[in-house]
Structures are given as structure tokens and as C-alpha cells.
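ok trying this again, last paste got cut off
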Amino acid sequence: MRLDSPLSKSEVALVGAGPGDTSLLTLAAARLIADCDCIVYDALVSDEVLAMAAPATELILAGKRGGRPSASQHDICETLIRLAREEKRVVRLKGGDPFVFGRGGEEMRALAAAEIAFRIIPGITSGVAAPAMAGIPVTDRSVNATLAFLTGHEASEKSRMEWQSLVAAFPVLVIYMGAKNLPKIATQLLQAGLAEEAAIAVIHSATLANQTITTGTLKQAAALELVAKSPSIVIIGDVVNDRVPWNKD
């Protein structure tokens, strides 16, 4: 089966929408978005990507709207199963890649348990695309041989993060969903031994018309002097110092 072949009735595609710009969609993603019965999408999927759907396509928001709580993961899985059993051709559309902090694995397992046919369409993950848009490579042979992707939701007292181990092992850190908790994250990293002057970049709405790029230091982030607004990707490490701006900020 070709990944971009038309969906069958009762089939679900877990599709990565990439960082937002429609030109960064995979061919398979673009074709399935344009030819399906319904799209269950997250809040991070851009309006430009959704506009590629056919006029008759049912659009179902599974993310936050107007400050109300987001749908539970259980409810999302049940919605996908219900739509498939109604013989709909379903695209489950997620920002970036479904399997990078996108809970795609949970949805895949739920579909498999319900014996629903599905396919997976990977997408460009924002943790790589956003720094690239800012002229920052996530790896550079003069800086790092390792790289860590983190979720910003892990900045609480119950965090599963081993901050000292992260600082010791990874010269470059890329943080998804890090805007809200950036001061807490910066404080944790400072306490774990990362230098106050460690370079940091915050890329907001990467690849979209309202993209902004802010740079500073870890100390500034901890002191609330470096403002981050959602959605943003945060990258920390010496790769930020060698940034080569090529895209209009």
C-alpha cells in the first residue's frame, strides 16, 4: 500500500501536519487531508493546513478552544473509533509528528485494539523545524554529539526529569511546549549546574507569518526577562550562539 493512496471506508490515518506552513507537509499528508470525510485535529494545526480540506469535510477540534479544557485522550480515541465504525474515512491531524510528544502511540494502540484499520503518516517535527527557521542547527559537530528532546510539561515537583543527568549528558536541549513553564525549567537547569550564560532561543509560531525569534540567556529566562508565548519551541545550547539568521524574524 502506498502511504498516499486514498483512504478506505472505516480507515484512520494518523497524520503529521508539520510545523504549520503548508509547503512543509508531506505529499501523503496533503493528499489525505484533501480527500477524506472528516478531520479530527489538534489546536496546533494551522488554519492554512485546515484550509486544504475539501469543503464538505467535517472538521472536529480535539484541542483547546477559548480556554476550555481539551478533550481527554480517551474521548479522542473513542471519537476516532466511532467515526471509523460509521464507515468514515478519517484523518487524525496532529501538529508536527504524531509520535513526538503527540500521543500518537496511544491512539495507534486504541485503534489496533478496536481492530480499526489505520496508517501512519509522519510529519516534520517542530523541534527540528523551528530551530532551522531561526538559523540554528540542532546538531553541530563542533558542539554536540547528543541531543535531548524534552516536554515543558515536566517542570513540576513531580517531574520525571533527572535534570542533573540531562545537563551532564546533553549539550543541546530542545523543549516542546516550554513557553508557560520556561522560568521553572530555566531554574531547574541552573540548579542542575547549567551555566547562567547558556544561550537560549525561543521560536514562536515557527514557519507561519507571525513567527518570532527571541534569544537570550538561561539566567534571563529564569528571571522572567525572556518572554515566551505559546506555541513555542525552546532550544538551549551553544548552537544558539552560532545562529545565522536567514529568515525574516
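PB: full thing came through this time. The CA atoms of residues 35 and 54 lie 7 Å apart.
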